[in-house]
Design goal:
507 residues, Aspartate Aminotransferase, domain 1, Aspartate Aminotransferase, domain 2, 3 domains, 7-stranded mixed β-sheet, 4-stranded antiparallel β-sheet, 11 strands, binds pyridoxal-5'-phosphate
């Protein structure tokens, strides 16, 4: 037990920060230069043996704690290594680490202005600035939520409460169960390739998973607007009430962008809320290419027509997890409190700068400050350059795969930053020609072998009837076409060579 009068926080922190500084900079350097593998992977039983997970009665002080920090670094995934291509986020960056430190030092809560005045204004300004990029107009703004799924949930609740405010007090009582209701079963429309958080949000709200209509996609994975309208009309004919359309800007697996402008016309016609889930793709708004005349210009075309937009800076912009926001053109962050509060007079009693009034939670992390500081550091142009570089590398990598024997692209072109492909082992190519579904097992087997080596971390996925393929995410600003991506293709070829008998595996 430490005596209160002997507490010297500043001195203790000073000593620990110096120790920490050396440890983390070495760790980052080794990851960045691929000296340290992406992961020194242990399954749970093995991990219990090498890391001390016991919780002591007597504190072990800096020495004991630093041993634990050391083994945490040793057995965790080093996302600074650009060969971590498994998920939609990559390593953080130096200003990201510094901003997390600032948040921890201040230990602030952005629910009310007087507890976090600076962070509150940063949140208001950075959501306004993002709103301007998406052309949401002068009343745009938003709030940060603990992740893209939470932002999507806040969008669905806000839409429902704005369109059908009686539900706030009376609960959800649709026709035909309640013949006098002004709504039937509420329906959500989203593409079959959209993120599962939409389904989760609907479940949480008691709408039921069966009331999410999955709209088919075209060959490029984009929502088919003709099918959307057809399905909506069918639903209305049955007495149901479509109220929410989710368009995805950058789907999780294939990176497709739904056509927002055309979807918005359908939303208007049938009085639906238009939400754009740009959790993943949203970062691309920083690229000038989205304001040019190329294919990239179509990605956010019509974004000004959205009622809400989710965007996760923790994915494409390298801001540390979590960092996600829900933007809106309608009255900025005040929309959420207006829609979700039961007190119509909240505005006159509450402080409009108390951001917590609008979110589902109470206390909130000042995640906005992380984006704000990162934007200050890199500028809009720095973010744009990061995206452009990634887009170029994804294109070049796609071209390499197209020409390389035994590799086959899932789609002939890359729509975004996910490069999706199969490896067809030459020894069994003729079997695969007859039965393409074998590719799922081939991919899984090769994937296991590549990830076991520890120097790469990649993912695989199936999508709607298409057998599992490799999905390589190009995001880290340090990923190198030759040193990382071509080496990965070699690693896949080596994994194939190391397999003695494919036939046994495929049986
Ligand atoms: C990642 C992602 C989400 C979920 O974001 P979390 O922060 O992981 O909750 C939602 N939608 C899309 C399209 C995504 O890519």
């Amino acid at each position: 037990m430490v005596a209160i009068d002997s507490i010297n926080n500043a001195g203790e922190l000073d000593i620990m920060l110096s120790r920490m500084q050396e440890m983390v900079t070495n760790y980052i350097r080794e990851g960045e230069h691929r000296i340290r593998p992406v992961v020194n992977f242990r399954n749970p039983n093995e991990l219990y043996k090498v890391v001390d997970f016991s919780l002591p009665d007597a504190g072990s002080g800096a020495d004991g704690t630093f041993d634990l920090i050391k083994s945490t670094l040793e057995y965790s995934v080093n996302s600074w290594n650009p060969r971590f291509m498994d998920k939609l986020y990559a390593g953080a960056n130096p200003i990201g680490v510094i901003s997390e430190l600032l948040l921890a030092v201040l230990n602030s809560n952005t629910h009310v202005y007087h507890c976090s005045p600076v962070f509150t204004l940063m949140e208001i300004e950075v959501t306004k600035a993002m709103g301007r990029l998406f052309n949401l107009g002068t009343n745009a703004g938003g709030l940060f939520c603990p992740g893209g799924s939470a932002s999507n949930l806040l969008a669905i609740v806000t839409a429902r409460n704005t369109l059908y405010p009686s539900i706030k007090k009376e609960g959800y009582l649709p026709r035909p169960f309640n013949p006098t209701a002004d709504y039937g079963k509420l329906k959500i429309f989203t593409s079959s390739h959209s993120h599962y958080s939409i389904d989760k949000g609907a479940q949480l709200m008691g709408l039921g998973a069966d009331n999410i209509v999955k709209v088919p996609v075209d060959n490029n994975g984009r929502m088919r607007v003709d099918e959307l309208e057809r399905l909506m009309c069918g639903s209305i004919e049955k007495g149901e009430t479509p109220f929410f359309i989710n368009a995805t800007a950058g789907t999780t697996v294939l990176g497709a962008f739904d056509p927002i402008r055309r979807i918005s016309a359908v939303a208007k016609k049938y009085n639906c809320w238009l939400h754009v889930d740009a959790s993943w793709g949203g970062g691309a708004i920083f690229s000038n290419r989205t304001r040019s005349s190329g294919i990239e210009a179509s990605w956010f075309d019509g974004s000004e027509l959205a009622d809400t937009i989710t965007f996760n800076p923790h994915k494409l912009l390298g801001v540390p997890l979590q960092c996600s926001m829900l933007l809106t053109p309608h009255n900025g962050h005040l929309l959420y409190a207006q829609a979700n509060s039961l007190q119509a007079d909240y505005l006159f009693h509450g402080n409009p700068y108390d951001l917590g009034a609008g979110t589902i939670g109470c206390g909130r992390r000042p995640d906005a400050a992380k984006l704000f500081l990162s934007w200050k550091f890199y500028g809009k142009e720095g973010f744009g350059a990061r995206i452009d570089r990634a887009l170029d590398i994804a294109q070049q990598f796609t071209d390499i795969i197209r020409c390389r024997p035994n590799f086959r692209l899932v789609k002939n072109s890359t729509s975004f930053l996910q490069v999706c492909f199969w490896f067809v082992p030459p020894r069994i190519a003729s079997f695969i020609e007859k039965d393409g579904s074998l590719l799922a097992n081939v991919t899984k087997e090769l994937h296991k072998k590549v990830n076991q080596r520890g120097d790469f971390m990649i993912d695989h996925a199936p999508v709607e009837g298409i057998p599992d393929f490799f999905r390589i995410v190009i995001n880290a600003p340090t990923v190198d076409l030759h040193d990382d991506l071509e080496k990965l293709l070699e690693a896949i070829e080596e994994a194939d060579s190391s397999i003695e008998e494919w036939n046994e595996i495929l049986q």
